[in-house]
Amino acid sequence: MSDQKVGFIGLGAMGWPIAGHLAKRFETLVWNRTFAKAEAHAREFGSRAVPLEKIAEAEVIFTCVPVSQDVDDLARALLPHLHPGTLWIDHTSGEPEQAKQTALKLAEQGVRYLDAPLSGGVVGAENARSTVMVGGEAADFERARPFLETYCAKIVHVGPLGAGHAVKAVNNALLAVNLWALSEGMVALVKQGVNPGLALEAINASSGRSNVSENLFPSRVVTRSFPNTFALGLLAKDLGICTDVIEAAGTPAPVLRQVREFFAIAKREIGSSEVDHTAVAQLLERWSGVEIR
Amino acid sequence: MSDQKVGFIGLGAMGWPIAGHLAKRFETLVWNRTFAKAEAHAREFGSRAVPLEKIAEAEVIFTCVPVSQDVDDLARALLPHLHPGTLWIDHTSGEPEQAKQTALKLAEQGVRYLDAPLSGGVVGAENARSTVMVGGEAADFERARPFLETYCAKIVHVGPLGAGHAVKAVNNALLAVNLWALSEGMVALVKQGVNPGLALEAINASSGRSNVSENLFPSRVVTRSFPNTFALGLLAKDLGICTDVIEAAGTPAPVLRQVREFFAIAKREIGSSEVDHTAVAQLLERWSGVEIR
Amino acid sequence: MSDQKVGFIGLGAMGWPIAGHLAKRFETLVWNRTFAKAEAHAREFGSRAVPLEKIAEAEVIFTCVPVSQDVDDLARALLPHLHPGTLWIDHTSGEPEQAKQTALKLAEQGVRYLDAPLSGGVVGAENARSTVMVGGEAADFERARPFLETYCAKIVHVGPLGAGHAVKAVNNALLAVNLWALSEGMVALVKQGVNPGLALEAINASSGRSNVSENLFPSRVVTRSFPNTFALGLLAKDLGICTDVIEAAGTPAPVLRQVREFFAIAKREIGSSEVDHTAVAQLLERWSGVEIR
Amino acid sequence: MSDQKVGFIGLGAMGWPIAGHLAKRFETLVWNRTFAKAEAHAREFGSRAVPLEKIAEAEVIFTCVPVSQDVDDLARALLPHLHPGTLWIDHTSGEPEQAKQTALKLAEQGVRYLDAPLSGGVVGAENARSTVMVGGEAADFERARPFLETYCAKIVHVGPLGAGHAVKAVNNALLAVNLWALSEGMVALVKQGVNPGLALEAINASSGRSNVSENLFPSRVVTRSFPNTFALGLLAKDLGICTDVIEAAGTPAPVLRQVREFFAIAKREIGSSEVDHTAVAQLLERWSGVEIR
Predict the structure, then answer these.
(1) How far apart are CA C77 and CA C90, in angstroms?
(2) Average of pLDDT values for B220-247?
């Protein structure tokens, strides 16, 4: 066990197992808005549930919360307690611009910040096989690496501050594009009498394949199981962040922007943000009068 | 060497190696519009270059030509010579409706037809690792299987007559969607200082990955090599066929239709149909003022 | 009263008043699928309700039916009875390609055909102030003019055979575009606290005004009266015809095609084709959580 | 001549004639970044060219500059000199959110602000027939009215602070939508042999007509005169502001957003922001291989 102390804030679906992996190797202080969860984590993983300001004792602080505003609020709350030289690793799927503002504030206290959103879902986190895409300075990235290696199979330093959030947002936008476009194609094929499972088998051995066609559609849509692993509302939020990245870049992106509109419409039409992101297939099904089964 | 005789029409980039594989196992009659190519094929593979009407002697006839109209013309020319019971396997990336008409005409002569477009490109064909998605009757499919196994690693019977062409068209539309959407995302990221190679590394270990992000962008776009393996004009044509499939199905497909428009615009803007399909990345680069390198 | 005899088929919302205007000046034979309507028309306007084949006695035949397929069916039924030299004026909002086929068939009998769809709605038709856009030969157009002047305020010969239907389709697509785009703009403005009636007043004195913003939104949407004057399903059909025109032209039209998809989605979401075309505003309202009032 | 003193900043294409109309009725102080223009205005209209801070002596200050950032800069520069009770009328086609920030700053000095963008172009301004859509408090609006009546034919108070800019942005987005959609429709019609001038004549007597089809296309596009009256770059900027309005409202707007992307692409493709906004028709023409003549 290393003698370095880490602090972990946010014990949700992703944070819980990740903090668990960290606790195996490092002295891990944990905090969660619902504190009972922090106490439960301590009992299960041997971490230490502490008041928020005590997190500042850690040399490396991790945040894994829903949105950048939450991170900013936490930074403000901890600012008076932070020690210079602390490294702040943010696993929130956040907004580049807001993250840069938070980083500036932290820098005034000598705290270093890295945006480090994750991919691989809860399963990846539990199996210590997450992918993390990091934005920030090279020295901070190298310092973070041994910690990230505790639960990540793929660690990539993609660019300067905000680049991690940006790449994550674009990745999730591509997930959304494939979810939507494949649904469009599949309902048309099913309407024409094509067997969807076999169509997917062909596509997945062809040039149009994607993680969506290989790993989401056959196991969740064709089977009609639609497990709830990633909320539609969160993916819609990521599409909004991607739009902000594109807006800041000033580059044309008609398809990504269009898909963002469709997911916003889908949220309204389905009537809930809590359904799984694959529910958009069911919206296309409803508009087409067929089921992809 | 089987005693079955096959006939192969169309010795282009895909047909040449495929007919070569067939010639190793079957007595193969070949014909090509530019007859010299048929003669060259005979010299290299031991096939037999014959006048068009002699192709009708084969028990199984293959067509591998650019468009369904070509197949229809060939069917009309061969009609007086065809024997009942002949199987016609069409490897053209064709149009379902036109193919059904051709199949009806052939059926009047007792000839069975399967639409069996391929994926995997020239490399796949050369290595006998193509994917073939077949539409038509089950009995005809089973009859075709041993021949297809000569050069296909993946053989899928996706549905009734026309279903093969339909699945191929949707597959290629998904290839196009990913090419376009990934280009949109990448130019925005590069504009914001993100390293494109590293961004792709992250995406390819994340939920938004696709064959395009894994096998096309790193080796062709980031390297700037842009090899010419699949003409933009052909992919634009496939998007048109996909639109016809959607039109016939009567299902909504705003994204697939939009991407079709963009590829048509891209053809115009780039000024050529002969450039490689990855050239659309260069169009987004021009519209954005950056290069994905 | 002229001594020329005209025949009028289709006494729906548009046909009824138009045939009535014709009956004031010409001996008018009428036929309708529900024959009782033809008899009622005769009683009200002094026209003559006759069996279908008797319509062929007229020198000028008018069709005012829902779709081109109906016109084609009628042409086939009347073909054995038609006299050479008859002029067929088609007020259906039809499909250019199918109309050209029908015209060819009629030409074999020496019957001249003009596609002459109308704009101006039922009110325009009742007040003899319709607009008619005509496709076909100049000589036929000139021959038709005196008849059209009976109920049209604006008569334009827009081009060769099919051009009338094409212009009508594009016109109705522009109506649809404005309905949709203005709804998008208005819900955003209302969400931000802007008074919709006053916003429309400003827009209608500005460069972004249209027939939709001037004559549809204030009187139907802001008032919430939504009178049913033109079915959503018919406008969606016209958008389909416009798409066919664009497809035949081979020109890019991303916005017109996109709006066509949205109207198809709107039909599904609203759950009826019979609601008024302005109902799309209510769909945007539902997606936005506000009302344009 | 009223004894009220007004100050006018920004003597560009719109400001020059408007300040001229004001000068006929009020003592008008003028300032322009290129001061020689202010001096020329004084010579022509009897206004008084003064240093910037002297503008603060006016009871009513007008700004007519390209973007909201310019207005904000001017407000900061004048802040130390402004008297409480001054009314600031902003004719810039601005951004609602930034304007609200500027208004807050001015309010600290007791200065009242109205966003009051104009429509009607240079011709409208010269002929004192502009349309002005105003956002802000009712009392301020009533106080502004007699001044606006000097050069406006249509004065509408559309909502609270920012509403004027928002309505202007939506109006200009609708102008852009009609410019683009009509171009799409017209190139398809011309490709099919339809006479564009006659098609427009029909459309302009039909339900799909707009200010664009009535007043821009016949006189500028069909004639090929393409006079430069409103830069493409400015209209693209307005579409960006409209996007911000939609973003702030959180309502779906797939068509308005798509048109914004196309205008951004058009700027790149045409290679200049300075061409007239109707140049987008020429881009559709290039993509279609026809001219709308």
Answers:
(1) 16
(2) 94
